Amino acid sequence: GYRVSLQGNFFGRNHTYTTFAEYNPRKHIKLDPPLNIQSNVTASKCQIWWSVPWYLVEILQYELQYKEYSMSWEIALNKTPPSSLPQIEIEATELRSGIAYIARVRCKVSENEDSYHSQWSEWSQTTVFQRPGVPKLSEKILNTRTMQFLFIPLSFGTLLYLFWNCKLSSRWQKASPALTFPHQLLSFSRSIICTMGILR
């Protein structure tokens, strides 16, 4: 322990002021920030980890801050790891797909530690991560599926049209045999043109 005092000459007279009667450095620690922060994102979660000196691992606690990359730190979200291990997980449901995030971490001596006390360290360097976006169907696959859905009703409509047209043609043939061949040819041509128009 130490006794800390301030001495000086004030208004021509020497004075001594006691600042700390008993100063114990281990009760007033400010740690260096964690190092080498890294991240890895999977479909279900984001894992973030960092490094601290091995002899401090068991007595430290951490606070993680993360936010969307384009946002301000003032609106960042805070998370506290459940243990003294230098790592934390963020569930994928807490992250928006396709959005870049940035995170940082700081540390201090755990509140459960009796031998040492400290204030929070400065924030560490940052790590950037992004939850993968939901895969989208390509335009080609989308068009193929659209054609598959449309093929059945278009085919049914075409067959119904041809059937109805042939039925009318047979009625006209009975009514006027002289117009049978030209009328059938005209009806067939109209059917082909109409069918091509529908398929397009």
Give a brief outline of the structure:
With 200 residues, this protein is of the alpha+beta class.
Oligomer: single chain
- Strand arrangement, largest sheet? 7-6-9-11
Task: Write the H/E string, N to C.
Answer: EEEEEEEEEEEHH
Our Rg estimate from Cα atoms comes to 40 Å
Main β-sheet: number of strands, strand sense, barrel status? 4 strands, antiparallel
Helix content class = 25-40%
Mean pLDDT figure: 80
Give the number of DSSP strands: 11
Q: Kindly report how far apart the N and C termini lie.
A: 91 Å
Helices, by number, come to: 2
Question: How large is the share of residues in beta strands?
Answer: 25-35%
InterPro entries: FN3_dom, FN3_sf, Hempt_rcpt_S_F1_CS, Ig-like_fold
Membrane topology: Single-pass type I membrane protein
Subcellular location: Membrane
GO molecular function: cytokine receptor activity
